[in-house]
Amino acid sequence: MARRDFGALERRRMRAVRLFEQGETQAAVARRLGVSRTTAMRWAQSLEEEGREGLRAAGRAGRKPRLSAEQLEEVEAVLLEGPIAFGYATGFWTLPRVAEVIERVADTRYHPGHVWRVLRKLGWSRQKPTTRARERDEAAIERWVKTTWPAVKKTPHAKGPRSSSSTRAASRSGPRSSAPGRRGGKPRS
Length: 189
What we know:
This protein has helices at 6-21, 26-33, 37-50, 69-81, 95-106, 115-121, 138-152. The protein has 7 helices and no strands. By secondary structure, the protein is mainly alpha-helical. The protein starts with 5 loop residues before the first helix and ends in a 37-residue tail after the last helix. Among the domains are: 6-55; 69-121, no CATH class. The longest helix has 16 residues, at 6-21.
């Protein structure tokens, strides 16, 4: 069952009411409906104290949205016109700009850090423009990659043992001594 399917939750409670009315115990109702015994006990108490109405759905859960459907449509209409039409110098919507649009259009203040929730509700996603210099010379870049880069690129040294550590020199790779004591030198004092 979906987490917020309130209709399904109410139907399950009404099924519990029918089972209680048929004389089923709380434990039996809990088993048959796949809920905890504590939940079945609460349902039985509500049924006893308030009747069937006590187990009806209470309505929507959580806080009511700050923007109505009409306000969301107005905000989206402004966003679709673009930031330049709204008076901004560049053609990019930023969260602070969208927060300002919401405040002007719907008279509701949103912190810029929470505006993304409104945008997601509208089906918008984050768009990041590609950043390339206007002066970019593709031919020069290609020449550099083919000629200069191989000369300056770091390569492992051809001679000597290599180390996996960038701060420690490579160790000798000769045979280990079978003599007692610590490896690499002086015995402990």
